[in-house]
Design goal:
Elements lengths: L12 E6 L13 H18 L12 E10 L8 E9 L5 E10 L5 E13 L4 E2 L4 H10 L1
Antiparallel strand pairs: 1-3, 2-5, 3-4, 4-5, 5-6
Length: about 140
């Protein structure tokens, strides 16, 4: 059974990353483990543009609770990958991020990734409610 992910109509952020030699596997293409590393790096870059971090995101820490990677095509050494991020599926305690990875030269989709982020208090190990400041930010950006 294949996972289906819906591509959003709107993206909050985009960035470029190059496939490095250390990103390759024995098949000489980008390894499956690297896709989540690209997602993480692009998420950190996005958060930085809005003066946020994963440890202080609108006043609350975040924890990733799951991820889905849907591979669409191979990426090779030197390929420039455009990564677009959209905030989707907000709940009372978190949200999901959708990542569209596309080869910047060929415009072919490389992967779709979705990560679920939850507001989490690491000190008492409890889930936290969705911060109002982030809701307000999303209203402005959407």
């Amino acid at each position: 059974m294949r996972v289906k992910l819906k591509i959003p109509n709107f993206f909050h952020f985009e960035t470029l990353m190059k496939v490095r030699v250390t990103d390759l596997n024995y098949g000489q293409h980008m390894g499956n483990d690297v896709f989540l590393s690209f997602a993480h790096e692009s998420r950190v870059r996005y958060f930085k543009t809005i003066q946020m971090t994963e440890r202080n995101f609108f006043g609350c820490p975040l924890i990733m609770v799951d991820s889905i990677v849907k591979y669409k095509s191979q990426a090779f050494l030197g390929d420039e990958i455009r990564i677009k991020i959209s905030v989707v599926n907000c709940t009372s305690h978190g949200f999901q991020l959708f990542y569209l990875l596309k080869n910047n030269q060929t415009q072919i989709d490389v992967a779709y990734i979705q990560t679920s982020m939850v507001f989490y208090n690491y000190d008492n190990e409890k889930i936290m409610p969705f911060p109002k400041k982030f809701k307000d930010y999303l209203k402005i950006k959407n």
